[in-house]
Structure formats: C-alpha cells, structure tokens
Amino acid sequence: MKKWAMAALIAFFGLPALAQSGGFHGDEPPPPPNKQESGYRGTVDARHTSIASAKRMKTNAWVTLDGHIEKKIGNDKYFFRDATGTVLLEIKGDKWNGQEITPKDLISISGRLLKDRHGTHINVGRILKQ
C-alpha cells in the first residue's frame, strides 16, 4: 500500500515537469522593419492583412497578421509590429502551444480585433511561428 501511495505522489508532483513550456522570451531585440518582408514564408493566406489596414476595420473583425512581438508589457499583453505599425496583443497562456518565441521570430497571429476608448487591440486566438 505504501508503494502505491508513494508512486501516486511521485506521479502527481512530477506532472508539472512534463507540462509544455513556451511563451515569449524578450531577451533579443527585434529585427529592423524592412527584414520582415524578406525570406521564404510559404503559401500566404489571402486574408492576411497589415496592422494599418486592420486598424481601419470594424470591431470584432477576425484578422491575421504577420510580424514580430516586440516586448511584453504586462500580464498577457504584448506589443506586435509589422512594416506598417504596431498594435497591442492580448495572448492567453494556452495559445502559445509550447512554442518559444523571441522578438527575432516572424510569426503569424490570428484573432479578434477589438476597439475601445483605450485604442485598438487584438485578442489572439492562434499563434504560428514561421
């Protein structure tokens, strides 16, 4: 009985070690804006848009953007940049899917565009490292 109890305790306390790590690691500076457009990125979704054009859309529009996360500014809040500007992202912990992302990584984000008295931000539903 003691062996089963000990095995259960080890399994219970050992599970967090197996959890997916991931998220944003802001210890590297982002590349200059003109480097975002270079390189092979595969098939480009026809619905991808820029930050400048996304800011002109209505609230609750679903947008897909390519760019870089510049820095973390609070709990689940990040600055995101492409060649046309910057926007605030809200990324919940479960959206990272174990991906480790730095400012140098070109990523594609999809999410709901929200506008309020504080400005425009995107509630991210999907992150894909390219």
UniProtKB/TrEMBL annotation:
The protein's name in its UniProt record: Uncharacterized protein (TIGR00156 family)
Pfam families linked to this entry: BOF
S-adenosyl-L-methionine in keyword set: no
N-terminal signal peptide: 1-19
Keywords (A to Z) from UniProt: Signal
Record-annotated membrane-spanning stretches: none
Residue segments, region Disordered: 22-45
Keyword Mitochondrion: no
InterPro entries in UniProt: BOBF_sf, CarO-like
